[in-house]
Write a structure and sequence with these properties.
Strand order of the largest sheet: 1-2
Structural class: mainly alpha
Largest sheet: 2 strands, antiparallel
Oligomer: single chain
Helix content: 55-70%
Mean pLDDT: 84
Radius of gyration: 25 Å
Amino acid sequence: MSARLQSRTRAAPELARVATLSIGKVARSSGVAIDTIRFYEREGLLPEPLRRASGYRTYDTGAVQRLRFIRRAKNLGFSLDEIRELLALSQDREHGVEAVKQRASARLADLDRRVRELNRIRRGLRELVDACPGHGAPEQCPILRALGDAHDIGEV
């Protein structure tokens, strides 16, 4: 048994004092796959859990809450590095909320930019679809011609 595992299993008496959950229960409760939990541990987003003498991981309910936080932040478009910052800021009682708002505002501005870009692309594609008769020679297809000539779709 490695020294690291031995030191983590020595903490096993602590397990009797807190609710312990298996990795499977944590995965089901948080809506996150087991492999994702292990990945987040490796990435430092989730603290490494205590281990039983058998080597099995044991988690407390805080792990479920943290995983739900990570999942929701990812759904809002935050990167793992940004989520790491948000988790750290959530512990900063003096400036954390202000900094979290700044990060969220920056994410919102980025989403607005992406929506504008997608709408521009959508308009261009709509024009091409409307102009295409859907039959005839491929060289007469406005969609194929535009894809062959970037200037036709506003790409320079």
